[in-house]
User: What shape does this take?
Amino acid sequence: MAKVLSVKNIPTELKYEPGFELKFGITDETTGIQTATLLRTHFPPGSKSKRHYHTEGDLIWYCISGKAVWYIGEEQEEFVTEAGDFMYIPRNEIHCTAVPSETEPVEGVGGYGGCANPYKSGKTFVE
Assistant: This one.
């Protein structure tokens, strides 16, 4: 059955990625979907995630506003995303995200391909 889920009615998740504000919109729990996840992201100014990877899902992300710096792989190769950019990180690829601005947050939409719930993505921290 089709559904509309308003971001206003979705609780903000603060534990999944400490320091970031996430809203898990489309998951197996909210819609019954079995193959993907879709979430709204808010990365506060100056925030940075811990290095990690996902064993059960490919990360996809779209930048709505702001500038995010992604550090990918063992060598922490730097990728920059700004409004209008897409980011793809295959499963098992170590990564973290940082917001270089101390005044401007980053807004985006992300998800996991092949994984219907962020808590089932096999998220593993490396530091």
